[in-house]
Design brief:
This protein is of the alpha/beta class. It has helices at residues 2-33, 48-62, 76-88, 102-111, 138-151, 166-182, 199-211, 224-231, 259-270, 304-318; strands at residues 35-40, 66-71, 93-97, 116-120, 130-133, 156-161, 187-192, 216-219, 234-239, 250-256, 290-292.
Length: 336
């Protein structure tokens, strides 16, 4: 009788242990199925361009798809070391911006052929595992230019950029052509501050443009909208929508959505099909990688005829009837 009780008790304990293990199995499987992803940024998380990548990755983390680690404000000299640490740490996908560290980043990718790399770059993909991306948001930049052309009273627009690299140049050119479509008389003053994150410097450059008559400012960098607000002028945003912070200043913005690119990369890595390719096109409007932000507080302030022209052009872009020209050359001031 005692033996039977002991045996029965053992069976019960074994059964309970199996049940507990089975209950835990899904969570263990989920943990194991999460991709390990890391990102390296040379600027703060809140910087416009980087914030869009960070936002898309945080969304994937919130969905439980990835384990995400990131480093901000990494110097160019330290970039390769951090990349190698993340690669040796077992991360399956590594993201970041390689514009100033192209040679080093590509060298790391060669040394870790089983790791997938997706980095912002002006160069081409590098087989087998180094993909590149870019903010190809020239389409909404063109549309925001149309809005700017219709809002300027002085016919003078000031444009402040970081560095004159293709990623910035193409957006400025698209904006300028768009502004010319709605206002052939508009002139542009262009300044590059040679920094990706120096709001005070961008602000001073903007003040100088306002002093010369600019009443609409293209805010490619942080600091421009602050200057426009202080002087009672208007601004056009880039990459992110800052109208909530500047409701009486920021008229429109060309928004970048990194989610289509990030989600594609995650799926390919998970499926074991990640290869070297150019993700640039996934930032275009047809892939929902970019859009013109809603006019919001300026919905009633932008002339109706300008709004109609912008909506018609947007429809043509989405229908493939109109293509915004990509011009990577450095834009020049046209103001006399």
């Amino acid at each position: 009788m005692t033996t039977r009780r002991i045996f029965t008790g053992r069976l019960l304990c074994t059964s309970m242990a199996l049940s507990a293990a089975m209950a835990m199995a899904p969570s263990l499987a989920t943990a194991q199925s999460k991709l390990k992803v890391a990102a390296i940024y040379t600027v703060p998380f809140e910087q416009q361009w980087v914030s869009r990548i960070h936002k898309a990755l945080k969304a994937a983390e919130a969905r439980g798809e990835i384990e995400y680690k990131a480093s901000e404000n990494v110097s160019n000299a330290d970039y390769e070391r951090v990349m190698r640490e993340y690669a040796t740490g077992g991360n399956q996908l590594i993201l970041g911006e390689a514009f100033a560290v192209e040679a080093a980043a590509r060298k790391v990718a060669k040394d870790f052929p089983k790791t997938s790399f997706l980095l912002g770059s002006s160069g081409k993909p590098q087989a087998p595992n180094f993909s590149v991306f870019d903010n190809y948001i020239q389409e909404p930049a063109y549309l925001s230019g149309m809005v700017a052309g219709g809002m300027t009273k002085t016919n003078k627009i000031g444009m402040v950029g970081g560095f004159p690299i293709p990623e910035v140049n193409r957006l400025m050119h698209a904006f300028m052509v768009g502004a010319k479509e709605t206002n052939p008389k508009v002139e542009f003053t262009i300044t590059f501050i040679n920094s990706w994150f120096d709001p005070p410097k961008a602000k001073e450059a903007t003040f100088a443009m306002i002093d010369k008559g600019a009443d609409v400012l293209y805010a490619e960098r942080f600091g421009v909208s602050d200057a426009a607000k202080e002087k009672g002028k208007l601004a056009i945003g880039n990459v992110i929508d800052t109208q909530p912070q500047y409701p009486d200043t920021v008229v429109a913005s060309a928004l970048w959505h990194m989610e289509p690119s990030i989600d594609r990369a995650l799926k390919l890595v998970k499926d074991g099909k990640f290869t070297a390719e150019d993700y640039g096109p996934y930032s275009m409007m047809k892939h929902k990688g970019s859009e013109l932000a809603p006019l919001g507080t300026f919905e009633k302030k932008v002339p109706a005829d300008i709004v109609a022209k912008v909506k018609a052009k947007e429809a043509d872009i989405l229908a493939g009837k109109f293509t915004v020209k990509v011009d990577d050359s450095q834009p020049k001031s046209t103001a006399k």
